[in-house]
Amino acid sequence: MADPVVATYSIAACDLGAGQWGVATQSKFLAVGSVVTWAEPGAGAVATQAYANPRYGPDGLALLRGGASAEAVVARLTAADDGREQRQLGVVDARGGSASFTGSQCMDWAGGLTGPCFAAQGNILVGEATVAALAATFTATAGRPLAERLLECLASAQAAGGDRRGQQSAALLVVERDGGYAGLSDVLVDLRVDDHVEPVAELARIFGIHSLLFGKTPPADWVDVDDALRAELAERLQRLGYDGTLETALDAWAGTENLEERVDGTRRIDPVVLRELRAR
Q: Is 67 in the same domain as 88?
């Protein structure tokens, strides 16, 4: 049998109002995100761990896509698996229903908690407090973006004790229909820390970069480009070696800095783009 995805805690969750589903996880296991995290917009999210059965991911999503409830998905996947007593599974469905399964042969401490729009679970943990922190933090952060909530869940779980064997990798997956790059992808966030002494903290740092490059500032908060600001922008871009019209220069600079998703003409400017340009 392959090595288990040991000492793992995870939370599968959704934000129905935003149309987002996701999974966050941390483990004493190399590249945990390559095994545990599965999600599809409009269908649901699946976390598979312990002596993980990776087929629970695509097979679970197929069942969810067909309209099955989280409880039905857990029941069908585990019933068909002779190794189920060594598995752990969390599922959230299209309606926010949730279910968590912990096989009787998972290593202590192992268990899960569920609630509206979330399924939290963990194995080989210091104690139940880790999973309780996942659940409590998710509930307490209602109203905030799903990705931020899931990151806070990981941090709270680690502070509550985390895994008994330590830390190694962490991952965050959030999906939304057409919510990803250029509106042409359903993957809103897909970040992984595959091997690190503090993977949860490192995942939060990388998410900060992701938010800078791909976050969206509400249109009402964008800054009008008047004559004075237009002249400032042109001067700053020219000093950085970008010539031509302001629109050409700004597009070229934004492309170099990977900020093109935050630029839309030159009549108005995202304050994040303005701040970054002024910092150069």
A: yes
How far is Cα 197 from Cα 187, in angstroms, rounded to an integer?
Answer: 27
Give the SS3 label for residue 194.
coil
Could you give the residue ranges of the DSSP H alpha helices within the chain? 56-65, 70-79, 129-140, 146-159, 199-214, 227-239, 246-256, 271-279
Q: Evaluate whether 211 touches 272 at the Cβ level (below 8 Å).
A: no
* DSSP code of residue 236: H
Sequence-ordered list of residues with C-beta below 8 angstroms from that of 210, at least 6 positions apart, any chain: 189, 191
Same domain, 30 and 125: yes
pLDDT of residue 151: 98
Among the ranges given (17-26, 54-63, 121-130, 185-194), the one the predictor scored with the smallest mean pLDDT: 121-130
Structure confidence at residue 1 (pLDDT): 43
pLDDT of 93 over the 80 cut: yes
Q: Which residues of 2-38 are buried (b: 16+ CB within 10 A; e: fewer)?
A: eebbbbbbbbbbbbeeebbbbbbbbbbbebbbebbbb
The domain containing residue 227 runs over which residues? Answer: 219-279
Take residue 195 and report the two structure tokens written for it: 């091997």
Report the number of distinct structural domains present in the chain.
Answer: 2
Contacts (Cβ under 8 Å, ≥6 apart) of 166: 7, 28
Residues 96, 18: one domain? Answer: yes
